[in-house]
Amino acid sequence: MIHPKDLRIDDYTYDLPDERIAKYPLPDRDASKLLIYKEGKIVEDNYRNLASCIPANSFMVFNQTKVVNARLLFIKPSGGTIEVFCLAPADTYADIQSAMLQKGKVQWECLVGGASKWKHGMVLQLSNQMPEFVLSAKIISRTAASFVLELAWDDTALTFAEVLHFTGKVPLPPYLHRNAEASDEERYQTLFAKEEGSVAAPTAGLHFTKEVFQSLTEKSVGTGYVTLHVGAGTFKPVKSETMAEHEMHAEWIEVSRAFIKQLEAHLKGNIVAVGTTSLRTLESLYWIGNKLVNGEKIDLDGTAVSQWDPYERSLTCTAEDALRAILTFLETSKIGKLVTRTQILIAPGYTFRIVKGLVTNFHQPKSTLLLLVSAFIGEDWLRVYEYAMEHDFRFLSYGDGSLLWRATP
């Protein structure tokens, strides 16, 4: 078996014309087409009929992260505009949630458009009318790729989450090549979004409506929720020839003790991840539990799962043992939920421990998400994408989706 480090990203591409990228969502969330892949066979259906495609007593897992208005447009004293894209809190905060609740000021890692025009020592400002306050920004430090900014506002009753809500714009994916519109405030957000912190939507969940959830309940399909705060790294192209030189982005996950008990109870059935973010969270749980089983400490403040952990660890355990170890750790530590970061890279060569089904949209060429799909269904990933292209499926964030079943090992 080839090590994922040796995978050539050029082997995971396909032709995606711009006109096949869905620039806007369909009027009805659940009207999107659904491609179903199982044991080499491909059929078409519709998200409204998803429940009929899921076996009774399955367990579907959703990412309840909420997209924040991460794009800020500051005005220079000379009148020019500088765009700030908020990526993640600086390392001084324990997690995204606590950083979002800060009042008065925060330090945040950001991308800056037009940074060369931001002179040293210049403080930028952005005024808001309702409610009335002024948001200012100054540079604390910079790296080759990003900046750490201090963002401060003069209404100290407001949290940073509220400040972004009032002053920011929806961070639509760059490949849509358009500015966010009023309708995106609602449509680039799942109906079940709860925990603020993502700069991109978990797009597989955008198709789900109250009616779809009701039909799943009637089919006795269970549902559970995890949180993975999607970072801008999800759009980061793989520019190296092989994966060995590509650094996977780390993202915050939050998983409650109650959910892990739910998951443990369903391990022998069909666990279906809604979205690659849910899948990455679930499989990360296995590797966190694996470390605990083998007597290792978990760095909750750092990155609990590195990108090569699944391929370079010789000690393994069952999924049941891994989840039980996490539950014991949380109970002993008197912690209600697991909060840490994962850098897991799922690529061909990965052995899935928990997830059997995946609901997901169609992803960009040469992306780590395409590697994940290939790991899940094997070389048929290209046949699936060619079918979708030939049968007028809509691609990427606002596009159609698929239900993929993992081959039985």
List the topology elements.
Layout: E1 33-38, E2 41-46, E3 59-63, E4 65-67, E5 71-75, E6 81-89, H1 96-100, E7 105-113, E8 124-128, E9 133-142, E10 147-153, H2 160-167, H3 184-187, E11 195-198, H4 210-218, E12 222-228, E13 251-256, H5 257-265, E14 271-274, H6 276-293, E15 303-305, H7 309-312, H8 319-333, E16 337-342, E17 357-361, H9 368-377, H10 381-390, E18 401-405
Parallel strand pairs: 1-18, 3-12, 3-14, 4-11, 14-17, 15-16
Antiparallel strand pairs: 1-2, 5-6, 6-7, 7-10, 8-9, 9-10, 12-13, 13-16, 17-18
Helix pairs in contact: 5-8, 6-8
Computed over alpha carbons, the radius of gyration is 21 Å
Uncertain residue segments: none
Query: How far from one another are the termini?
Result: 14 Å
Number of H- or I-type helical stretches: 10
- Binned, the helix content reads 10-25%
- What top-tier CATH class of the largest domain fits best? Alpha Beta
Number of self-contained structural domains: 2
In CATH, the architecture of the largest domain is 3-Layer(aba) Sandwich
Provide the residue-averaged pLDDT. Answer: 93
Strand order in space, largest sheet = 2-1-18-17-14-3-12-13-16-15
Shape: globular
Counting DSSP E segments of at least 2 residues, the number of strands comes to 18
CATH superfamily of the largest domain: QueA-like
Q: What is the CATH third-level topology name of the largest domain? A: QueA-like
What is the ordering of alpha helices and beta strands?
EEEEEEHEEEEHHEHEEHEHEHHEEHHE
Structural class: alpha/beta
* Main β sheet profile: 10 strands, mixed
Q: Please indicate the percent range of residues in DSSP E strands (runs of 2 or more).
A: 25-35%
